[in-house]
Design goal:
The protein has 176 residues and is an alpha+beta fold. The chain has helices at residues 29-37, 41-48, 57-64, 119-133, 148-156, and strands spanning 8-12, 18-23, 71-79, 85-95, 103-110, 138-143, 161-166, 169-175. The chain is globular, with a radius of gyration of 15 Å.
Length: 176
């Protein structure tokens, strides 16, 4: 079984830059806030479906203090100029309850300078790998119709996919 709390993998982006995909930790609060501040308002709108304000202390806690059973959160990092690492993206899954317990809702955020480099697809692969070991059999995602890049990631994933549009939102279901 995978130790999701200590998950770590190295990948290369399409342009050859090295990236580390790892589990988020409570110590990532400042780095998550810095990454959030570096995002374009349009990226935030695509992710949250509305204009965003400054994250609250509770949101930062929710983003960085997860149980790795019902919630999995991975971050993608590159080496920063100061030798530390910088968060450039992330992916999350939130296991649903009740009759849908074998399903998890997923979400992704990628910094604009790293979009189009295959990072979301790599995050999806790692998230699926961990989720399968926890008994998750399908991912569910909702996105705005304008988010064609994320829809393309799902289509290229190789996972069986269903999609439908309801009330201006695209609903995707990926079988693991």
């Amino acid at each position: 079984m995978i130790d999701a709390r200590h998950y770590r993998a190295e990948e290369a982006l399409r342009d050859g830059r090295k990236v580390v995909i790892r589990s988020v930790t409570p110590e990532d609060k400042a780095a998550m806030l810095e990454a959030y501040h570096g995002l374009d308002p349009a990226t935030l709108y695509m992710r949250f479906f509305a204009p965003r304000r400054e994250p609250t202390a509770r949101e930062l806690r929710d983003w960085t203090e997860v149980d790795f059973v019902s919630t999995i959160r991975l971050v993608a990092c590159i080496a920063a100029d100061d030798g530390d690492e910088r968060i450039i993206g992330g992916a999350s899954s939130f296991r649903l309850a009740g009759a849908e317990a074998a399903s998890a809702e997923i979400s992704f955020t990628i910094e604009e300078d790293f979009q189009g480099q295959g990072l979301a697809g790599r995050l999806l692969q790692h998230l699926a790998h961990i989720a399968r070991t926890l008994g998750v059999r399908r991912f569910i995602a909702e996105m705005l119709p304008a988010n064609q890049a994320m829809l393309a990631v799902f289509e290229r994933s190789g996972l069986p996919m269903e999609r439908r549009r309801v009330a201006g939102v695209v609903h995707v279901r990926l079988e693991l």
